[in-house]
Design brief:
The structure is a homodimer. By secondary structure, chain A is mainly alpha-helical. In chain A, strands 1-2 form a two-stranded antiparallel ribbon. The longest helix of chain A has 25 residues. Chain B binds a DNA duplex through helix 3.
Chain lengths: ~250, ~250
DNA sequence: TTAGTATAATTGATATGACCACTTTAAATA
DNA sequence: TATTTAAAGTGGTCATATCAATTATACTAA
């Protein structure tokens, strides 16, 4: 039975699609102001509440930005829009970025520590190879490949720690975060100082592991990520400190 | 001109951020329903309009889905993207239990460290309550309940660390490890010495956190798990690998 | 009892109006 | 002319009422 699948898309979604299409087809150009809300309401013949939920969705998708008392303005659409909602979330929220780095400090520091104690000869050969791969591609203005090489090096170290759960965890965290690493490298690809420093840190980390100095290896891994955190160029928006009461949001 | 850094985060963004972090850190159960809008409004003390613009943003980012007349439901965004393979592994092969303890030393040590630095008064109240719950049930020959109480205490500490991804990991790891903890408690439930020692360690851990001594809190968490490992009665090869003190791990 | 149906309660979607907070503009003042 | 002040413009929040879809409940019939 072919029920003709009526698409009663609700008012809000209709507004979103409408404005979206106007943005993409060039009716609105980046930087241009939308009509004031009270005027848009008349044009679209919808309530202001519905319009505002639609504008909120557009803002969430990075298509517009809003300033109280100012207006709604069209953003540059080429913005980095991650398909993974989780990545999108982390990327939008500078707090989460720092938190993720803290997590990596814990995990990768631990991996470096045990790798220094347990790495076999074969492990060391692999680590050395990954280090050389990374150094070959570093500073070559290909952040995507460099991010992958970076990942491979850290995975090799994780493997050398001979702790399977730890390795799995690091691998999964990394596959999710590789886009963020790529972003970091892109921001700093023209900064010779940062590039050199990162490579020095990698070398020192590997050296400490080869020497079996677990404490030092862990410290280097920790400091390395602190450096990454501090060299985030930060197009970061408001570091909106979180607030208070909002609790018990979920059912049962 | 003092910059004075405007911290006026608007109501809508506060709601979004609050719900986002709860979704990411796993406070929700995937597919779980949010409270109805009218109830949420009372909980959060905001207007329905503000709430709905926030929900609209969350929907746009793929974090929730909504059905008219039905409710708002959390999507499986972070559904164990980090931990799924790990959980399968641990479930399948309990032989990793010692490696898992190493992993826990890293994660829970980190959580204790940051909890000592960041715990709010409310966090401390919660931690204290969970500690008392655990002490009430400890040694009562009910390993299942005790394991759950143990989990709740460590989750409260993880929450106090205010690192959402870390909380997510610990929560997910724990939900699988609870059987392991239960096993440990069952084996030793008649051993007064071990029981007392575990409770003393818990008290010391909480005390260090309350005093804001992050380094000591981390060390206690680390030693606590070393003790758990060593008091596992059974077979497994003695992982004599260092149980070295963690002293001066990090500068910070 | 069981299945189906009709009714009521629940819940999200929309609309309207008012008021607040910030921004922009324009008028008033020095 | 430059600065200050007032007013208008505009997004943000709140409150209330109503519509529309879903879910829960009670009722009827087999």
């Amino acid at each position: 039975m072919s029920i003709s699948r009526i698409h009663t898309l609700n008012v809000t979604d209709a507004i979103v699609k409408k404005i979206e299409s106007m943005i993409v087809d060039g009716t609105y150009i980046p930087g241009q102001a939308l009509l004031p809300e009270r005027q848009l309401v008349k044009e679209l013949k919808v309530s202001r509440a519905s319009l505002r939920t639609a504008l909120s969705a557009l803002k969430a998708n990075g298509l517009i930005r809003s300033r109280q008392g100012g207006g709604h303005y069209v953003c540059d659409v080429a913005k980095n829009t991650f398909t993974d909602p989780l990545l999108n979330l982390i990327n939008r929220n500078i707090d989460f970025k720092f938190q993720v780095i803290e997590l990596r400090q814990s995990l990768e520091g631990t991996a470096a520590f045990y790798a220094a104690q347990r790495a076999t000869e074969q492990d060391k050969i692999t680590i050395q190879a990954r280090l050389e791969d990374l150094q070959k591609i570093a500073g070559k203005n290909s952040p995507k490949e460099e991010a992958e090489a970076d990942l491979e090096l850290h995975l090799a170290i994780a493997n050398a720690a001979h702790n399977t759960p730890l390795t799995l965890l690091i691998r999964n965290v990394y596959t999710v975060l590789i886009k963020l690493i790529e972003e970091h490298l892109s921001q700093n690809q023209h900064d010779e100082t940062i590039n050199n420093q990162l490579q020095i840190q990698h070398s020192e980390l590997v050296e400490a592991i080869f020497l079996g100095d677990g404490v030092r290896a862990r410290q280097i891994a920790y400091d390395h990520l602190s450096y990454v955190r501090d060299s985030f160029g930060d197009s970061c928006f408001t570091d909106n400190q979180n607030s208070e009461p909002l609790e018990n949001l979920f059912d049962q």
